[in-house]
Amino acid sequence: MEENNIGGISAGQLRSFIEKIENLEQDKAEISETIRDIFAEAKSEGFDVKVMRQLMKLRRMKKEELAEQEELLDLYRQAVGI
After folding, report:
1. What are the angstrom distances between the C-alpha of 59 and each of 5, 21, 80, 81?
2. What's the rounded Cα separation, in Å, for the pair 56 and 6?
3. pTM, to two decimals
4. Separation CA 1–CA 13 (nearest Å)
5. Could you give the CA distance from residue 56 to residue 40 in angstroms, rounded to a whole number?
6. CB neighbours of 27 closer than 8 A, spacing ≥ 6?
7. Do residues 3 and 10 lie in contact, with contact meaning Cβ atoms separated by under 8 Å?
8. Torsion angle of the four alpha carbons 62, 77, 54, 61, in this order, in degrees rounded to the nearest 10
9. CA geometry: angle at 57 spanning 52 and 62, to 5°?
10. pLDDT tens across 33-60, in order?
11. Most exposed among 22, 30, 63, 67, judged by the fewest C-beta atoms under 10 Å?
12. Where does the chain have alpha helices with state H?
C-alpha cells in the first residue's frame, strides 16, 4: 500500500492518528458516563458525592503535599476563627 503524501504530510499517518484519538475520545466518554452512574449510585445509597470527590483528590496527593495542605488549612481556619 502506497503512502499518500500531500504537501509533505503523510495522509495515512495523519488519518491513523486522528482515528486513534477519536476512538480514545469515545472510550473517554463511555468511562465518564460510567463514573457518573457510579456517583449516582453512591448518592442514592446516602453517600455525599462532593465529599467523595474531595477524598479522591486527597488520595492522589503525595503525603508531603497533603500534610502541607492540611497544615496550611488549619492555619487559615485559625486565622478566620473557624
Report:
1. 48, 29, 27, 27
2. 47
3. 0.70
4. 13
5. 16
6. none
7. yes
8. -10
9. 140
10. 999 999 999 999 999 999 999 999 999 9
11. 63
12. 11-44, 49-60, 63-80
Give CA–CA dist 18/12, Å, rounded: 10
Contact 27, 17 (CB under 8 A): no
The grid coordinates listed for 29 are 466518554
Q: How far apart are CA 56 and CA 35, in angstroms?
A: 13
Cell, residue 65:
503535599
**Pairing of the two strands 9-10 and 5-6:** antiparallel
Angle at 69 between CA 67 and CA 75, to 5 degrees: 105
For residue 1, give the 3-state DSSP assignment. Answer: coil
Q: Looking at residues 6-14, what average pLDDT do you find?
A: 88
